[in-house]
């Protein structure tokens, strides 16, 4: 459904996105995660045809990004959604329905259904008087006004309280159950972890890793072995009347056992600790920053 090849964007002399390539299958939820300035927004805007790439290609639903047919099949949610403050949700959404040539009776039903699903009350209140969460829901409704196949959401839950955040994330997940293909960016690993099939981790303009979350953990994570001994061995620390040494391979576990036996003691327990996804992401971001 989405094919991105060697996508690059330069702003003046500064490279914001460098050689990104990824694909997203139909019906998949694909997350782009990374710290501030990683290049997430720039990538999403190129996908949505709102920014011209310096190099490379992005194709969505078989069309070149920016193609008018592609735009009709795409819903984009910007990170900050500028809404016309004096409009109401209903007049605002009707305005966009007209832009997309959605027939009036279809638009009316779609607007009310979506606002019902998003549990948005006060539909006649001016947007300028609404909370950030309510405005976000209106912006999400706007992204769905043309019933698009593909949704590109830039930080859909950014700056929202935890309750609204969960609501928005669950709603995004429901959209994928309805068959939409979704690409979204996030800072927060939890959002990505809870609804994404696959992710790309971006840092300083580059995709430093991508794949299913389990694959990433397996490929980039580490397993630590906590080896408990009855006697002190090299690099061990005292821990509740025993000694604990943390190592990263089975060979080192064996070496610790030998060292304990040589000192007249033994190994009494071995525990493993897998790195969390959070640690994997931080490691990837840090190792990239060092190069
Ligand atoms: N119009 C622009 N002109 C110059 N530099 C820009 C422009 N837009 C973005 N940048 C720079 O490109 C880099 C990537 O920005 P981008 O907004 O894509 O990152 P991001 O990952 O979405 O960050 P955030 O999480 O803060 O939104 C940043 O260093 C940013 O300062």
UniProtKB/TrEMBL annotation:
Belongs to the ABC transporter superfamily. The keyword Nucleotide-binding applies. InterPro entries: AAA+_ATPase (IPR003593), ABC_transporter-like_ATP-bd (IPR003439), ABC_transporter-like_CS (IPR017871), ABC_transporter_ATP-binding (IPR050763), P-loop_NTPase (IPR027417). CDD domains: ABC_DR_subfamily_A. Keywords: ATP-binding, Nucleotide-binding, Transport. It comes from Halorientalis brevis. This is ABC transporter ATP-binding protein. The keyword Transport applies. GO terms for molecular function: ATP binding. It holds the Pfam family ABC_tran. Residues 2-229 form the ABC transporter domain.
């Amino acid at each position: 459904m989405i094919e991105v090849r060697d996508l690059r964007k330069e702003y003046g002399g500064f490279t914001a996105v460098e050689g990104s390539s990824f694909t997203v299958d139909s019906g998949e939820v694909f997350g782009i995660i990374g710290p501030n300035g990683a290049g997430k927004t720039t990538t999403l805007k190129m996908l949505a045809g709102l920014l011209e790439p310096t190099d490379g290609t992005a194709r969505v639903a078989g069309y070149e990004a920016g193609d008018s047919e592609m735009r009709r099949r795409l819903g984009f949610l910007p990170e900050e959604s500028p809404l016309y403050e004096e409009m109401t949700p209903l007049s605002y959404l009707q305005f966009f329905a007209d832009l997309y040539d959605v027939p009036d009776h279809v638009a009316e039903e779609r607007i009310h259904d979506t606002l019902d699903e998003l549990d948005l009350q006060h539909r006649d209140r001016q947007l300028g008087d609404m909370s950030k969460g309510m405005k976000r829901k209106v912006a999400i409704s706007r992204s769905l006004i043309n019933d698009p196949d593909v949704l590109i959401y830039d930080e859909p839950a950014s700056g929202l309280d935890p309750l609204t955040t969960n609501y928005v994330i669950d709603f995004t997940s429901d959209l994928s159950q309805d068959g939409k293909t979704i690409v979204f960016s996030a800072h927060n690993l939890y959002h990505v972890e809870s609804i994404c099939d696959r992710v790309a981790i971006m840092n300083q303009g580059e995709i430093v890793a991508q794949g299913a979350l389990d694959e990433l953990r397996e490929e980039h994570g580490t397993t630590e072995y906590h080896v408990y001994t009855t006697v002190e061995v090299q690099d061990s620390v005292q821990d509740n009347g025993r000694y604990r040494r943390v190592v990263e391979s089975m060979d080192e576990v064996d070496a610790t056992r030998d060292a304990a036996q040589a000192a007249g003691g033994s190994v009494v327990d071995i525990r493993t600790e897998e790195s969390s996804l959070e640690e994997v992401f931080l490691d990837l971001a840090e190792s990239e920053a060092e190069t």
